[in-house]
Every structure is written in C-alpha cells, then in structure tokens.
C-alpha cells in the first residue's frame, strides 16, 4: 500500500498528543506521550539486526505507526516504509475453507519448513497454518458471534484474507496484524506471522505457537471491523490473548506473562508496554468466568457503536459498573497460587500470587492509587488482636475488602475501623477511569486481647442455626454487652454485595439480633453461602452462613 490519499487517518487522540502533553514512555498509560516517543520505539524495534526482548505481538506499534504516519518525521517515514507495503512472497496456498490465502516461500531466510508428508506439493507447515486460521474463523465468527473482518478488495490476489509467513524471530515476536485501508468506521488488514516458530526467544514454539497466533491475530482483524483506528491497542491485546485460551485451553501461553500484571497491581489496567497488557489478559478471564463469555463481545460491540476511546463507554456494559467490577477483580486476584480456592479462577492455582505490601505492627503510612488499579496491604500478627484504621480519599471511587484466615468481607468506604483479627490483608481497588486517589492506614495490636475474634470482654456467639432454613425459623446471633450501645448486623453475598442491614440500640447485658432470610426489600434470598458481619462497641465479628430453601 502506498502512503497516498487512502492512508489511514489518526483518530482525535492525536489532537491531545500534540497539545503539549508531557512526554511519557511509549505505551506507558494507554497512549503515546508524543510522536517522537512513538518514533523512537518503532525505530528501535524494527532496527536492522535487532534481537531484543520478546514482545508477543507488535500490532500496537504497527497500528500506531500506520495511523500517525502523517505526523512522523521524514527519516522515520523512510525507515518504516516497509510497514506500508505487503511482504512479497512467491508462493501461496488457499485454505480449505477458501477464506484465507497463506503466502510463503521455501527459499532463503524466510523459508517455511519444507516437510511434505502427503506429497501434495504444499509444505505441511503451511497447511497447518491454514487449518488453524479456518478453525479461528469457525470459533470466533460462527460460534462466538463476532463479525467477519472487512474484505480487502483483492489486495493479495483475491478476496481471501491474507496471511504472510516470514522470519519474525529477529523482531522477537510471534506476529502482528497490519491495518491497511479505512472502510467507513472499519479497516481492512492482513496478518504477518513467523515462518517456523522455532526461534529460541519464543516462550511457546512449534504448532502450539502457530495455533494460538492464528487465534490471536485473526481476532485483531475482527477488532478492526469494530474500530478502524488507533486507541484500543491495550484492549486488543488483552482480548486477543484471552481468545487464544478460548481456542486452545491446554496451551496456556498467557501464563508466561501473568507476573507482569500480578507483580504490579498498582498500574492502571489500560497500560500497555509490551508486557503488562499480556499479563492483564487475566482481566478478560475474570470477566468471562464471572459474567459469561459474551461480555467480551458486548464490550467490543459498544466500541463499535460509540466509536469512542474513553473507558466510560463500558460503565453500562460492565455489571454494576467499573467500581463493582474492579472490586471483584481485585478480590479474585488475591485468591491465586497457594491461596486459590473454588469460586474464583478455574486455573488460579497456576497463577502467580499478587504482590502484597507487608507490615509488622504497629505501623502507619499513606499511599496513592491511580484509576483502574488495586493495592494489597498485609498486616502481620504480633500476638494480640489487631486494630486497623483506614482512611480513603474520595471513598465513592473505592471498593475494598478485608481478608483474614481464608475469609473475606467488605471494607467500608471512608474511615474503616476493624478490630479483633490476628492477621488481615486490606485489598483496595479504584473503580473510576481517571485520576489518583490517596489513602492512609493506622494499624496497632492489643497484646491483652484474650482471643482472635476480638469480642472480649463483650462476647458474641456464632449465628444459629447454621445451615439456616428460613422456613423453620430465623437466624439469630446472641451477644453480651458490658455497657449500652448500638449493635448492627449486616448480610452480604459471597462477592460482597450487601443485601440486608439492621441496627438497634441495646442496654447492657445479653442481647440478640435475628434475620429472616429476606433482603432489604423484603424479598426471600436464594439458597447459598452468605457473609454476616456483627458490629458493636467498636468491635466486629464475621463469618459465613449457609442458607437452604
């Protein structure tokens, strides 16, 4: 393709980039800081003889170069001109479905493996690539309901989608999808993949790498059908890496990148830097396992409908909005590795454990957290019950949890006070799409506390009966107060949504609070596991109850 009048046009993000935004590293916050940063990274990646750090897919860099080409320097345009024309390869093979044309050579540095067991004149490797692409089409279009990519009008010799196999090992990448020509809000595109997937830098090699790359890059072609410009590269990579696992659940190439995310939960979700976005593919796994596989398609459909790049467009698509989703996501990310348990990630035991900040009591401090990020503070025991005070700037943007001894319950907004645990982890997530938000904590311990529940000298019994059958009576929690005070009981779903709360003033002595198995609207709740939280005298007691109907 030439760099003439049919060049892809940049979206309006560029206007912001050119209005004096401070320069940031390429891909550091979901966008480029300035054009020179884009040039520097692109030129370093595509420099002759480069053999650098492995980057799973170069689509984000190629896409940005193509869309911002009018603003590149003359030297950059010359050096990167090869991205604006298709590879020239002498042979091609039409896939069995007739949907894909695979271009290849059997000579030189770009040669594919030439083994041809069936003697039909077509290398087996080429046929495997074609078969993998056909399978990707069946899965992504016919089964999952995504739209077909835009046809390119015969650019590769016919109307089939084109895939070019040549050596990409020197670029340390599996492949990329190259956007070519705008058609309405969409763009045509073609795929470039490695010619043998045997380079030592590849974490997954051979046919496994062929299969996942076909699923990954074909999904990028679909992405350009929804949105034919630049701005969603981070989500393109998250969702394409997720799609690999939908197609080939046993390969698990995404395991190789999870530490980039779990080691840095404090980084905004939409950061892309050649590493973080692939670890952040766990976000798509969370969405699928929590809300169903179709939610990924609905998010792409919203991009297609709005033609916008701001994250707020998903506020009505994500159940409960960003705050609820980020809160649950942060909780799920705690229960991985040795902490994995049923009800969270299906493959969570194979995931790394999220990085936590550890504190020996007493301790106090402060910090800040950017949008769409989370933080984990673990307060370690010193032989007595803990007292933890938590203060949150702009409480409405946070969703948080306390976790202790394998149980979890919601952390309040604003100033939270929690007593009685011998060890606790606070999980805080910011569920808005811009800004930074501060927090402070003050943690101490009471060496004289007589038990780990923190209920002495004001004692609370366990809720009875448990399991609880509403048809046979109410659930009751009994307690004793040394002096008059307010007592409250709250009931939460296992994922932290409050469904019932009751507060009452009690005199000193024995008391009781009861729950009839209905929510705050008076409607019976379904069978399941619920969390109760009893608060009184500055102390709390919590646990799980089973409701059976």
Summarize the structure.
The chain has helices spanning 13-17, 35-45, 59-67, 74-79, 124-143, 206-226, 233-247, 258-262, 276-279, 282-291, 294-306, 321-334; strands at 91-94, 100-104, 161-165, 175-183, 186-193, 357-360, 363-370, 373-380, 385-392, 398-404, 407-411, 415-419, 424-430, 436-446, 475-481, 485-493, 498-506, 509-515, 528-536, 539-547.
Task: Compile the SSE list and pairings.
Layout: H1 13-17, H2 35-45, H3 59-67, H4 74-79, E1 91-94, E2 100-104, H5 124-143, E3 161-165, E4 175-183, E5 186-193, H6 206-226, H7 233-247, H8 258-262, H9 276-279, H10 282-291, H11 294-306, H12 321-334, E6 357-360, E7 363-370, E8 373-380, E9 385-392, E10 398-404, E11 407-411, E12 415-419, E13 424-430, E14 436-446, E15 475-481, E16 485-493, E17 498-506, E18 509-515, E19 528-536, E20 539-547
Parallel strand pairs: 2-3, 3-5, 6-8
Antiparallel strand pairs: 1-2, 4-5, 7-14, 8-13, 9-12, 9-14, 10-11, 10-13, 15-18, 16-17, 16-19, 19-20
Helix pairs in contact: 2-3, 5-6, 6-7
